[in-house]
Design goal:
- There is one protein chain.
- With 300 residues, the protein is of the alpha/beta class.
- It folds into two domains: 145 residues, Rossmann fold, CATH 3.40.50; 137 residues, Isopropylmalate Dehydrogenase, CATH 3.40.718.10.
- The longest helix is centred in the middle third of the chain and has 17 residues.
- Bound molecules: dephospho coenzyme A (COD).
- The site of dephospho coenzyme A has 14 residues, from helix 5.
Length: 300
Amino acid sequence: MGFTELRAQAKKAAPQGLAVAWAADPTVLKACQKALVEGLIGHVALTGPERAISQAAEQAGLDLSNWTIKAASSPGESAYQAVELVRSGECAILMKGKLNTADLLRAVLHKERGLRGSSLLSHIAVIELADGRLTTLTDGAMNIRPDLEQKVAILDNAIRFAWSIGLAKPKVAVLAAVETVNPKMQETVDAAALAQMGARGQFSREAVVDGPLAFDNAFSKEAAAHKGISSPVAGEVDIFLVPEITAGNILYKAFTYAAGFKTAGLILGAQCPIVLTSRADGEESKLNSIALAALAAREG
Ligand code: COD
């Protein structure tokens, strides 16, 4: 299953409203328009600087006369307005426009006016590999240096998400630089604990968790065999769990830019799915991310 099939699945969900924070970006507007035409969403509400949004719409060749626009003069204000559109029930999906990730996430995390859920919020990237199969990577965009407890929550979010998009009993590789536990490398100790938790059924849905694994042996069955590593996830990984944001962000961008794979991104664990791609990501990546959010919104 690739993004084409996912988009087809997402069309079957009842179309929901999408709120965009700081929407003055032609690529974002075009992705929203396509999502409307494809029936992935029912309506769009934009927040941000009105003049710049009109200019972006002109650049994109779009007529926004039927779209709701809420004026905001700063990215922070715009983020709170978009969050409020979800809190009021007007929209069921939030999307990052042309603002810093941290500005949007601070509004989402606000204790009284935000969208915190019952679990830790985390980012998941979805990647379509060369053979057309989807895999995921977490967390390369939100949690900076998660401890073991936070990694458990990040992995649990990812496992539930994988099931929701049809990756049943997902295979998880907990990444490190080596395959053996080295007490001087905390990520290898955490990986071994997570693998044992998987074996004991400690996540909220079933998954096969292995680690520590270096990326080559997780990604390639041949590399693992060559090194004499026997792993039930080698070459078939559905979830790559990275030790911290920098490793994850570099790997995510290497998938996009060096390998040329299609990618999409979401924040999980909030009161609604949040479309979170890089500002440089193209229209297709943003559209695929909206489709994922529509599917996740259906799951509730
Ligand atoms: N889930 C739930 N609650 C959280 C989370 C989370 N992931 N992170 C923080 N909180 C809560 C804390 O418990 C606390 O109550 C409050 O939010 C504030 O926490 P701080 O002090 O850590 O918050 P900030 O504002 O300093 O940092 C939160 C950010 C998400 C902004 C920060 O973690 C961050 O900058 N992440 C990286 C974002 C980024 O730049 N990504 C770039 C790639 S696109």
